[in-house]
Design goal:
This protein is an alpha+beta fold. 51% of the residues lie in helices and 15% in strands. It has a 3-stranded mixed β-sheet with strand order 1-2-3, sandwiched between helices.
Length: 145
Amino acid sequence: MSSRRVLKAAEAIREVVSMAILTEVRDPRVKNVTVTMVELSADMKSAKIHVSVMGDAKQEKLSLLGLQNSAGFLQSRIADRIDTRYTPRLSFEIDKGVKNSLEVARILAEVLPKPPPAPPAVEMEDGESEEEEMIDATTLDDEEE
């Protein structure tokens, strides 16, 4: 179980790395990258950074290679902004969680039946729809009780 100190440090590293990737990394291979999570070792000497990349498998590989080449720069940013005894060595890993959840949603949409379409609202003479009148009637019933 991680200590509270390690969890706070991991969150701080996530924030620093994600902002540095967004604003300071100039590698053209690193684009559409989101830092999802940081796993920090108990001794705080190594950190595994999980990233999600929008794009195909080729774009993921290119972004991962660019991030690995930028690891020293990102470590220097962590050292500048976070005061710790050790600056963790960074390693990067693709987080498949986002892509897996999209795939599950797509499969569920295929398998589950489609809900029936809502009936169209019928206009009344006074400009209200039949649905609005039904809602008003139910709220009045609730208030009377």
